[in-house]
Amino acid sequence: MTTDTLTATPDEIAPRPASGRWGRLAQVCAAAPIGLVLIALANSLSYRGSSWGVPLFWAGLLLIYGAAALALWTGEVSRRDALGILVVTGLALYTVKVLHSPAGLGNFDELLHYRTLDDLAQSGRLFAENTLLPISPYYPGLEVATTTLMRVTGIGIFRAALIVIGVARLLMVLGVFLFLERVSQPPKLAGLGTLLYMACPSFLFFDAMYAYESLALPLAAFCLFAYRAAQLDEGGKRYALIFAGTAAGLATVVTHHVTSFILAGTLVLWLIVTVVFRRWHAEPLPGGGWGPAVIAAAVIAWLLTVANVVVGYLWPHVISAIGEMTRILTGEATSRRLFESSVGIKSPLLERLVGLGSVALVAACIPFGLWYVWRHQRRQPLAWLLALGAAVYPLMMLLRFTKHGWDIGSRAMAFIYIPLAFVLVAGIELLRTSRWSWPKKAAIGVPLVLVVFAGGVIAGSGPSTRLPLPYQAGSGEMSIDAETIAAATWARDVLGPNNRIAADATNASIMGSYGRQRVVTASDGVSITGLFLSPGLGTYQSEIITKGRIRYVVVDRRIAGVVPLKGFFYEKWEKELVDYGSTVSAETLRRFDEVEGVSRIYDSGNIQIYDVSGLAK
């Protein structure tokens, strides 16, 4: 592979003080545990209600990332040291998520996948029903890998989940580095490019959760690396690399829908661009030409034969986002307020400034990166494809102004950031190779990289989710405590699994996962809002119980008088059905106590479980 570099400046040629053979890697290895100790302390303080947790969290996080940025900025570290720095940093950032919930899988998305995993571990059968996330059983790659580890080693669900996602994180870091190394000019930029990928909003928390995207992304990254390495015929192992990349692509197909769609689309575009460019730059087709076709065919086949429900699952979100964006552009609707929750809680001013500054820096660097790519790699088809991917970044930012598009834009960043990191590091190369002295370049460049990273963390997690907080009713993960889990455990042990049960969103997620109950949702053709919130308890409620075949209901009295952090208690559309004001009254929550045909079978003080089978018609 040829390497194009800019003319070396005297500052680059002049020797700099040596930091020792392992100096820069040792610095990162020393900084990472110190940063993690600060974050662990921040978590403890935050959970106890102390405001000191926030500055300690940021101090620990920036220490971990900043040490790596400073080490990789000079580009003088060896390839082995660069890999070591990236592995240590990537695993340290994964540990940040583990420290957030070290006792078990507690994030909402993790609980959804917990049920699929538990069903597979208990029965050994695929495609069991999961009403918490109906699409999850049809993409069981993550759960199959975890269950296999559990059966081979005998460890429990939580430990197996941590190991699988930890290995996936390692594969992601290595996959991105190895891929960028074979595309970037010069290849030494791959280290800094991989570090910039870690600034992706989903990297720190979302893609470190036990969820299918967390495994599918690394598999897709490995597929891209293997196909690129095969093009270069490294070590004469072209066909072995093609088969390995295709195997990773097929594993992606059965692990996550969106990742497999984007991977197949990327590979097909890569194939087309390579064919178009062959008159200027003759190189082998990616995956031998047949690899992308096999993966694309597998995506379609799996979609039609196994996961045909995915269209109904994803399409409404796409249509809603397009419709909302259209209404905003035509002035028929107002845009979503950035850095503000659905109930009006705003992020601190400094976070808003850093978040906006991060987006501005990225947007400003893209033109310079594209110019660098044009100057040095305009005959490389893959470079063109990555440049096109980076150019999609502004569009993803626009989606954040819509309520429905925000989720799409946030999820898409995990994919956009691979080509974006390629373009950004190309733009940064212009600064690194300038005639300024090295200390001046480091004093400017490293803080800019830190701003981009901090902005990604801010964009990917709100103040209420970044640190563990004291119990707060009606607030998603913050509403899960020992009493909530105890009620679910009792239901599993005493009532048995798969009883049809209705509850608020938080208790439903716990009852459906740890409690192994069959939660009644809108997918059953019934809305439970009227059962819990409509005035009285008569014919209307009996019809809901009958239609949903509901046997038990769960009432958490702690939500009385509380404004829900996410804007709802039971269902997102509940206020369109029942206008109960800003909070639910205590009287409403006591409605099941004195109704004939209803019996209270569990009472922990705050949480009651009622048998409502007597109200069914």
Short description:
The protein has 617 residues and is mainly alpha-helical. The chain has helices spanning 10-13, 23-47, 53-73, 79-100, 108-123, 141-153, 157-181, 189-197, 212-231, 238-253, 257-277, 290-305, 310-329, 349-377, 381-391, 393-399, 405-432, 438-460, 463-466, 482-495, 505-513, 529-533, 539-548, 574-577, 586-589, and strands at 500-502, 518-519, 552-556, 599-603, 607-611. The longest helix is centred in the middle third of the chain and has 29 residues, at 349-377.
Question: Secondary-structure blueprint of this entry?
Answer:
Layout: H1 10-13, H2 23-47, H3 53-73, H4 79-100, H5 108-123, H6 141-153, H7 157-181, H8 189-197, H9 212-231, H10 238-253, H11 257-277, H12 290-305, H13 310-329, H14 349-377, H15 381-391, H16 393-399, H17 405-432, H18 438-460, H19 463-466, H20 482-495, E1 500-502, H21 505-513, E2 518-519, H22 529-533, H23 539-548, E3 552-556, H24 574-577, H25 586-589, E4 599-603, E5 607-611
Parallel strand pairs: 1-2, 1-3
Antiparallel strand pairs: 3-5, 4-5
Helix pairs in contact: 2-3, 2-4, 3-4, 3-18, 4-7, 5-6, 5-21, 6-7, 7-8, 7-9, 8-17, 9-10, 9-11, 10-11, 10-12, 11-12, 11-15, 14-15, 14-17, 14-18, 15-17, 16-17, 17-18, 20-21
